[in-house]
Write a structure and sequence with these properties.
The structure holds 2 protein chains of 2 kinds.
Chain A: E1 5-15, H1 26-41, E2 50-61, E3 66-71, H2 77-84, E4 92-97, E5 101-104, H3 117-127, H4 132-146, H5 161-173, E6 179-183, H6 191-206, E7 210-214, H7 218-224, E8 227-232, E9 235-240, H8 242-254, E10 258-260, E11 272-280, E12 289-291, E13 296-304, E14 312-319, E15 325-330, E16 345-353, E17 361-371, E18 376-390
Parallel strand pairs in A: 3-7, 3-8, 5-6, 6-7, 12-18
Antiparallel strand pairs in A: 1-2, 1-4, 8-9, 10-11, 11-13, 13-16, 14-15, 14-17, 17-18
Chain B: H1 3-19, E1 40-43, H2 52-57, H3 59-74, H4 82-102, H5 112-139, H6 141-146, H7 153-179, H8 191-215, H9 218-230, H10 248-252, H11 255-268, H12 274-299, H13 302-305
The chains are: A alpha/beta, B mainly alpha.
């Protein structure tokens, strides 16, 4: 069977520091020129601080396959899609596409706020690679799907953000492409529209089109894909069945118990910088796997650079693999009554999760330090770390010691029950009654 | 029909079929006719200088980007297109008072307002198109970093969109000539090739400047400054003959010299500045090649540095 997409030793190298200094000034370049020329003449490679976002990735996709691409943040998923959509060019290797590529990445990029909905449908469609005739053919469907019929002649800058992204998604979804690249766009719009999008994705997948789907949502991956690629630090570590792919990914995930940041790459803004985030046991030892009865500590260490005007509130959001938030918790919840003001300095906040609270499973933690009055997130690190909860079936857990089957629920608290006998038949066999 | 078009059509008919839900799910195992050659083949070590078939393929996008630029410019402006007319007319009025009446600069026997307007026509186009083109890439940063299309379309669209203003101004000039009862010479036919040359020159400058602007934001400050100075080292408000003899050679190095004085000579039937015009053609050709080469080289990292 011939492949519709063939990736051969695909690699992309980025210069470090590129994000903080996105462009040079002419003077810097000119200053560096003589040295660079001399070393190039001597056959030396310019001494650069680089990293490989993607390295030697080879795979083939056959027509009609729905392939999930999963991996941690920074594993190279987005880089892979960026290369395949040709937004950026590979450093090594290459790829061949035997069909037209449509992407549901960054669907709003081609919109111009001043133009009307109608004008934007044509402009954006053309940017995505549709022919004029093709757009005209699908025009009514696009409008219908986005549900913006009454606002067609309004400049899109007056649209609500929901309408805006619905229209963008709708245009992109109607591109007649044989290969479709999707990156978590299912997160646009309200619940009803998301449902519609998942439906559309399902249609697309069943319609025999080839789909590459990047997602952190294992439910979606499980439901739609028939094959999974797992990326880790730019390399392809798994290419095969969905279940073993998800397992590989989750295994990687749970290794991520502690993140520390150095001087130059610490996340945050002028006010607050994160230096460390980790999950640990009650003895302060970082650890990623816990018994269901154990207490778990979520820790965050941060530096405050200058005295903020408002009280700072470190907080954690804990997520299930499906992407739904299990809970969120703030430090100093009573700070309206008793505000805690941080001065410049280093701080550590620890959130204690009692034992027998979370059910078994993997949890992903987003670490955040924000100012609550203004809701400014100073630091927001998704997937800062993760941990797993196991039930080793010892006395004291809610499951008990015998039953091993499925046990629903996100929470697994040990709760007090009251029990009383309301009426009891004297004639019943003794084994059914409590004595 | 190019082979790409053929393949595209084939591929499209294929997807049409699979779109209609009446069919049972497609047999993944076999019957799909994939094109023999890949539609897209990307290799890190293989690049063409300019891909003409690809540019042709994206002609609709170039058109839509141009339409976008034109539409957006006069949206929510009460006077709208009137601005296109108002600007050069005001400049003409001011300059004819200052330079011809007060400074007494010769105008080759043509009424001063006409002379100035004919000079301003190509210059205003040059400066606005170059300014717009050089900002076109960074002005569409989100597009460049998120969607693929030949990047050269963005500066090209800006250059094309400015042609609308140019055409309106040209009609204005025709009207002024009627008012001043200026005779039309057969040389006016040269206006067409000279305009093409002007557009090519603007493309050359605009394309390379837009690329440099992505990496070196200095360009943003340099351009307005150079354009301001440029007006006075180009025979826009004075005839070429007004430039001192010993500086004349320097004027020839400026490709706009031949175009501006050429257009004026064509319109008013003056002696054609053959030397200046040939030099313009030559320099424009060289600039165009250099500009495209630089652009193609820098294009590789646009999405990463913009």
């Amino acid at each position: 069977m011939a492949a519709i997409l063939k990736s051969i030793d695909l690699g992309k190298e980025y210069r470090l520091g590129g994000s903080t200094e996105p462009y040079q000034t002419l003077r810097e370049s000119l200053k560096g020129l003589p040295g660079a020329t001399v070393s190039r003449l001597r056959g030396q490679k310019p001494n650069r601080n680089t990293f490989w976002a993607l390295k030697d990735v080879s795979f083939e996709v056959e027509p009609g396959e729905v392939v999930g691409v999963i991996g941690r943040n920074g594993a190279g998923k987005s880089t892979l899609l960026k290369l395949l959509t040709r937004v950026t060019e590979p450093t090594t290797g290459g790829f061949d596409l035997y069909g037209r590529v449509g992407s549901l990445l960054e669907v709003t990029a081609g919109f111009h706020p001043e133009l009307t909905g109608r004008e934007n449908i044509y402009l954006n469609g053309t940017i995505l690679g549709m022919r004029h005739a093709e757009i005209r053919r699908h025009f009514d469907e696009i409008v219908e799907f986005a549900g913006i019929k009454r606002h067609l002649e309004t400049p899109v800058k007056r649209y609500s953000s929901g309408m805006y992204s619905r229209l963008a998604f709708s245009v992109a979804a109607h591109l007649e492409a044989e290969i479709l690249l999707v990156d978590e766009v299912l997160a646009v719009g309200d619940a009803a529209f998301q449902q519609k999008c998942v439906g559309k994705m399902g249609d697309v997948a069943r319609g025999g089109r080839t789909v590459l789907l990047v997602s952190h949502n294992m439910n979606v991956i499980n439901k739609l894909c028939n094959r999974v690629l797992v990326l880790s630090e730019g390399e392809l570590v798994h290419d095969g069945s969905v279940q073993s792919g998800i397992d590989t990914y989750l295994c990687q995930e749970s290794e991520n118990v502690e993140t520390t940041w150095g001087e130059d790459d610490t996340p945050g803004d002028d006010l607050v910088r994160l230096t460390r985030a980790c999950v640990s046991d009650v003895g302060d030892t970082p650890r990623g796997v816990f018994d269901i009865q154990e207490a778990i500590q979520l820790e965050v260490e941060f530096t405050v650079q200058s005295t903020p005007e408002y009280p700072l509130a470190p907080n954690f959001r804990v997520f299930e693999p499906t992407g739904s938030c299990v809970f969120m918790s703030f430090d100093h919840p009573n700070h309206y009554e008793q505000p805690v003001y941080h001065r410049a300095g280093r701080y550590r906040s620890v959130c204690h999760i009692p034992g027998n609270l979370l059910a078994e499973g993997t949890y992903y933690v987003t670490a955040c330090v924000s100012t609550r009055e203004r809701r400014i997130p100073h630091v927001f690190v998704e997937n800062a770390f993760s941990f797993r909860v196991h039930d080793t079936m010892q006395t004291g857990s809610a499951r008990g010691t015998i039953y091993t089957g499925p046990f629903p629920g996100t929470f697994r608290p040990v709760l007090d029950w009251d029990h009383e006998v309301l009426q009891q038949s004297e004639n019943s066999p003794a084994c059914l009654t409590h004595s | 029909m190019s082979s790409i078009d053929r393949q595209r059509r084939m591929a499209m008919s294929l997807s049409n079929k699979s779109n209609s839900n009446t069919e049972s799910p497609r047999n993944v195992g076999g019957s799909i006719a994939l094109p023999l050659q890949p539609l897209v083949s990307v290799r890190a070590d293989r690049r063409s200088w300019i891909d003409a078939s690809q540019l042709w393929e994206f002609r609709e996008l170039l058109w839509f980007l141009m339409v976008r630029d034109v539409k957006v410019r006069y949206k929510q402006a009460a006077l709208g297109v009137v601005w296109v007319v108002l600007q050069p007319l005001t400049m003409m009025a001011v300059f004819s008072v200052i330079f011809s009446r007060l400074a007494n600069i010769p105008t080759d026997g043509v009424p001063a307002p006409l002379f100035l307007f004919a000079g301003l026509l190509p210059w205003v186009y040059f400066s606005s198109a170059v300014a717009n083109a050089s900002n076109s890439l960074i002005g569409s940063a989100s597009l460049v970093s998120k969607v693929y299309f030949p990047r050269m379309l963005l500066p090209s669209a800006a250059v094309g969109a400015a042609l609308v203003d140019f055409a309106i101004s040209a009609m204005l000039l025709a009207g002024l000539m009627l008012i001043y009862e200026q005779p039309i010479s057969p040389q006016i036919i040269l206006l067409l090739p000279l305009t093409v040359l002007l557009v090519l020159l603007v493309l050359a400058v605009g394309i390379v400047m837009s690329a440099l602007n992505v990496k070196y934001r200095d360009v943003r400050y340099v351009i307005p400054f150079v354009l301001q100075v440029g007006m006075f080292i180009t025979p826009v408000i004075f005839p070429l003959s007004f430039a001192p003899e010993k500086w004349r050679a320097l004027f020839y190095l400026n490709p706009m010299t031949g175009i501006v004085s050429g257009i004026r000579a064509a319109v008013f039937g003056l002696d054609l500045p053959i030397a200046a015009m040939s030099s313009s053609v030559l320099i424009t050709a060289v600039l165009l090649v250099v500009s495209v080469t630089v652009f193609r080289h820098m294009e590789r990292t646009f999405a990463d540095v913009i």
